[in-house]
Inverse folding.
């Protein structure tokens, strides 16, 4: 029932069914994704994957983003490489209720498909993107939090299915074919949390994009799968959510084929509008695990006071931060040795906020992570968990050698649903990431992305990217 | 420790370390695999996958087996398609302690790699194949049976890792690179048991082959992963074996880095020889779930008595079979509607044994499954579970309308470790599968496969296949 219901919803959804606020969120999600994919295209991990897999590349169908002069390869590998690039700086988007980074797997598969086939408008693209993001987040909600606690990287485990339904929607698969695409995607479960801190973390959304693309293409060709892949006794939800009880009800609640659950998939009637997860997507102001964001936010604010009051970093005696317990579980690396590990260090986050007054990919490069001055501030940071704190809350107290204290209590971090990233900040983030790669064409590219809804053929847009 | 230990074992194993009886099993495993891959190359599922994915094919590097006139595509897709073909008739091999079909994922990845790169001898190939099969089966034993019970298709969940270590071995990766290859493979967990009975089941070993090949190639290029992927708290064993307790000890027992466990990985010294899982591989005499084999075996024997005593099928009143409980759980489909479902019907297995006196892929074609005569015999079959029976044991009682009874108690089915398939039967199976495809060259191909150990360059062998 869950699989069939999801396929039917995806198949039947029309652009006019989607509230405009949801479309706007999808546009921002795509904009943010494109910036991340372009910005991550020069990262070591992306380059290694490109070079290692080059012998297998098929015909030129789809672009690898971030290359001056078009570089096109087969759609499968383009989906993988753009997916890796979009996640490699840990700078992408976040569906806060599940900490899924939803756009990576879906947009990577979808843009590659749109370019390969041609003839799809910006609205076709956005509608498909929305079906994918909704599918990922609803399925994530259904297995949350046990699925994540056990050790699955929820972005990619749901991402394969999100990418599959999105590509199914774009290619115009029938409802039955979409059922089989969901089955083929659900059986490819990629992503262990143990990989956090290594390049394999960014491989996850890339591989999820490929999994979904392959699933949809095979299903379109007539390859068969289970028709109850999501809800069966030994199907997706029960296997990847094995420590959670009553997954049947949970699927029913979030996919909404029970009696009008408020949180169900967005519906076509105004009497039962459902809940759109795309609208709840947020964008990272800092390129690291989202739980560190309130600490960086607070430290950036304290940095301004340092500057205005002419304090010297050398005079810091101690930096005491109070955080949600998950912060230490996920990001407790006291002495990160390189850029990948620094993403999982609340201590590094606090230090760069205080020293630089910002947290962009530049503050996570190896040279910064290994800089003695940064290390000296980092070593002064102590972090304590406080059960009553929310995940987007933090308190920072900097004690100077003369006993003076600077304090900051961040109630909701920038980038949270209460303090969303403004369009200006999104554009600043885009500029930060893409300036080196895009040069003069940065402004035009940014504008073209914001106008995706009006694009006649997505091939035109990707030729700009 | 488990990951490092496995990588070190793989990296250091020499051909001279492997007992010849193990090499012989590897040769039989490869022979049986090649027959299945050739025989499955014309199956609907293989053809659909080929046609659907053709737009993405890269340069000609590796053969798709079973095509007259060489058909070469990129190694990644060749691994996928040969992997699908080798499993699609459910006719491959079985490591009975885990019901893993070990050769499919490993040989599919390995042959594609050997052809792509060139210069690898038959001994290089067999040594790599053995490392892959050992890795799969040892890891399977470590998470068995909870992992399978929950709903994972253990052939492909361990197959990605087996394929990765085999390709790592063949390509000569360092121990460190092999560690990362294991990590990259372990995070790609493919295969839900819910897919049994659909074409997606055969997709699993094919995708596992690709996962492993990609993992090894990325690791060779320098892509990093966890160094404790198998044993970490949120690593492979704990995540995919979450309902099993004490996985650390289990890994230690089967990989054997504890104090000289008898079942450890085969070692280089005669004082601690370990246990070789390759030697325990078995080959299916019938193209269906292995638990049905004792029933078919018994019914084939009764068929001979029918013939010698001139009984008529129409005079059967009832066929009563007593089986291990797992038989009904896995293969209890009373009214299979097509060839895929018939593989999971103990009733169909009994009927074709009685009617045809054999069980080859021909007895599982749609026309046979839907034949009224077959249906009439199938409908007379009743199956009862008996807790005290082993999985390779069955009792069949055929009652004729005149009250006469024919009985057969199969203590160990043909193909079990007690009654292994003879070389003659393996060759007969090869002939059955490959005659249509290979025609006149069948004999030469069969001989070439048996002589794989003497091959100078595996490219020479694949040009014959």
């Amino acid at each position: 029932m869950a699989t069939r219901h999801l396929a039917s919803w995806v198949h039947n959804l029309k652009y006019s069914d989607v509230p405009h606020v949801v479309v706007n969120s999808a546009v921002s999600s795509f904009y943010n994704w494109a910036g991340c994919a372009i910005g991550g295209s020069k990262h070591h991990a992306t380059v290694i994957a490109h070079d290692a897999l080059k012998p297998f590349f098929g015909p030129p169908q789809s672009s690898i983003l971030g290359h001056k002069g078009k570089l096109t390869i087969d759609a499968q590998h383009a989906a993988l490489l753009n997916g890796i690039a979009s996640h490699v700086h840990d700078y992408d988007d976040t569906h806060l209720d599940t900490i899924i980074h939803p756009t990576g797997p879906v947009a990577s598969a979808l843009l590659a498909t749109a370019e390969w086939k041609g003839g799809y408008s910006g609205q076709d693209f956005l509608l498909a993107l929305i079906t994918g993001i909704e599918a990922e987040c609803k399925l994530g909600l259904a297995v949350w939090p046990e699925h994540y606690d056990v050790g699955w990287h929820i972005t990619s485990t749901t991402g394969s299915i999100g990418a599959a339904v999105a590509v199914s929607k774009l290619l115009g698969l029938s409802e039955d074919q979409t059922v089989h695409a969901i089955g083929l995607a659900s059986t490819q479960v990629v992503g262990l949390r143990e990989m956090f801190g290594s390049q394999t973390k960014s491989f996850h959304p890339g591989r999820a994009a490929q999994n979904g693309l392959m699933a949809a293409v095979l299903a379109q060709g007539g390859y068969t799968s289970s028709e109850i892949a999501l809800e069966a006794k030994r199907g997706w939800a029960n296997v990847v959510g094995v420590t959670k009880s009553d997954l049947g009800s949970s699927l029913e609640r979030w996919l909404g084929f029970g009696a009008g659950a408020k949180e169900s998939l967005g519906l076509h009637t105004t009497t039962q509008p459902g809940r759109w997860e795309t609208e709840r997507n947020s964008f990272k102001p800092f390129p690291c695990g989202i739980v560190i964001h309130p600490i960086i936010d607070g430290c950036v604010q304290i940095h301004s006071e340092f500057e205005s009051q002419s304090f010297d970093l050398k005079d810091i005696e101690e930096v005491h931060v109070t955080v949600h317990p998950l912060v230490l579980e996920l990001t407790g690396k006291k002495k990160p040795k390189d850029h990948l590990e620094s993403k999982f260090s609340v201590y590094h986050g606090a230090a760069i906020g205080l020293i630089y007054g910002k947290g962009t990919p530049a503050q996570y490069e190896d040279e910064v992570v290994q800089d003695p001055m940064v290390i000296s501030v980092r070593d002064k940071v102590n972090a304590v968990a406080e059960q009553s704190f929310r995940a987007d809350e933090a308190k920072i107290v900097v004690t100077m050698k003369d006993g003076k204290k600077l304090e900051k209590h961040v109630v909701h971090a920038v980038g949270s649903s209460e303090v969303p990233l403004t369009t200006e900040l999104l554009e600043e983030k885009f500029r930060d990431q893409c300036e080196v790669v895009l040069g003069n064409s940065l402004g035009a590219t940014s504008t073209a992305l914001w106008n995706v809804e009006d694009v006649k053929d997505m091939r035109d847009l990707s030729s700009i990217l």
